Amino acid sequence: MGNESINWDKLGFDYIKTDKRFIQTWKNGEWQAGTLTEDNVLHISEGSTALHYGQQCFEGLKAYRCKDGSINLFRPDQNAARMQRSCGRLLMPQVPTEAFIDACKQVVRANERFIPPYGSGGALYLRPFVIGTGDNIGVRTAPEFIFSVFAIPVGAYFKGGLVPHNFQISGYDRAAPHGTGAAKVGGNYAASLLPGSEAKKAGFADSIYLDPATHSKIEEVGSANFFGITRDNKFITPKSPSVLPGITRMSLIELAKTRLGLEVVEGEVFIDQLDIFQEAGACGTAAVISPIGGIEYQGKLHVFYSETEVGPITQKLYKELTGVQSGDVEAPEGWIVKV
Ligand SMILES: *Cc1c(COP(=O)(O)O)cnc(C)c1O
């Protein structure tokens, strides 16, 4: 496929086979040499633990084309560190930070023609993952592993500006109190497919999960983190061992404090105290910020700022973070790695 066939303005979030991907295997107790390949199909043992026991984890990050033509990776060291924690939780070998970043850079360079142009709002999305492979049947850690990184061009999540969506509190739990909620593992996503589809059938963007122990506090918004802006201008985001520590969340915390001068609280967001918020949103790599119009709970819709308009603080946060990512706004030390 040539670039001529990519309509940058129409790009969504769909799988596209790009030119090259990085692949590396772990065998005989160590990582073997990694390589770029054109082959986008994995040939693995039918006994692979990734297929039966969910021994796998993944990451998501983006490469951005800047105004001056250079290419930015946003905080890849944080993705490397999180993947190491996910691997540790599932008894998989860790990929060292430098090797992780190097693999990402190789994949970006090899697929440079797929990076959406500066100003299009798109980016090259990178999907690193580790899976347990090799002949096996018992519930134990795999004899072999694969670490791979592939890339797809993705469009701006919101074309023509941010739009709020309504969400529904789910009756299902996404993760157990001391389970794998904080690890970016496929099992958590498998568990979220049914609640997500029920929320969509009911006309909502996605489901919101409450804390699994007491079901009284907001934890996650689909596969993104929650934040709210209180009426006295505090940025509040849930703190819990079963919340996935998002890099967008971590970055917004920093920018809210240092650039917007907001007080930041990592704490509890009680579902029966949503009145304290003037604005609310979901945050993650895919959309950066997805404003929350309203939340349905026990048959009632609680509206924050508006169901159709986006609050000013949410807009400021979005502008600041996307500016940092694309190189238009000065980044805090260490946030940008040039490819
Ligand atoms: C990946 C993910 C997020 C967002 O993390 P980012 O690093 O900001 O992309 C939030 N919640 C869940 C459950 C996730 O899997």
UniProtKB/TrEMBL annotation:
Keyword DNA repair carried by entry: no
The reaction(s) this protein catalyses: L-valine + 2-oxoglutarate = 3-methyl-2-oxobutanoate + L-glutamate; L-leucine + 2-oxoglutarate = 4-methyl-2-oxopentanoate + L-glutamate; L-isoleucine + 2-oxoglutarate = (S)-3-methyl-2-oxopentanoate + L-glutamate
The protein's annotated pathway: Amino-acid biosynthesis; L-isoleucine biosynthesis; L-isoleucine from 2-oxobutanoate: step 4/4; Amino-acid biosynthesis; L-valine biosynthesis; L-valine from pyruvate: step 4/4; Amino-acid biosynthesis; L-leucine biosynthesis; L-leucine from 3-methyl-2-oxobutanoate: step 4/4
Entry-linked SUPFAM superfamilies: D-aminoacid aminotransferase-like PLP-dependent enzymes
Chain coiled-coil ranges: none
The EC number(s) this enzyme carries: 2.6.1.42
InterPro entries reported for this sequence: Aminotrans_IV, Aminotrans_IV_CS, Aminotransferase-like, B_amino_transII, BCAT-like_C, BCAT-like_N, BCAT_family
One example of a Gene Ontology biological process annotation: L-leucine biosynthetic process
Alphabetized GO MF terms: L-isoleucine-2-oxoglutarate transaminase activity; L-leucine-2-oxoglutarate transaminase activity; L-valine-2-oxoglutarate transaminase activity
Stored PROSITE patterns: AA_TRANSFER_CLASS_4
Keyword vocabulary terms for this entry: Amino-acid biosynthesis, Aminotransferase, Branched-chain amino acid biosynthesis, Pyridoxal phosphate, Transferase
Cofactor(s) needed for function: pyridoxal 5'-phosphate
UniProt xrefs under CDD domains: BCAT_beta_family
Pfam families: Aminotran_4
Keyword Secreted: no
Positions of post-translational N6-(pyridoxal phosphate)lysine modification: 184
Family affiliation: Belongs to the class-IV pyridoxal-phosphate-dependent aminotransferase family.
Role summary: Acts on leucine, isoleucine and valine.
Name of the protein this chain belongs to: Branched-chain-amino-acid aminotransferase
Organism: Pseudomonas veronii 1YdBTEX2
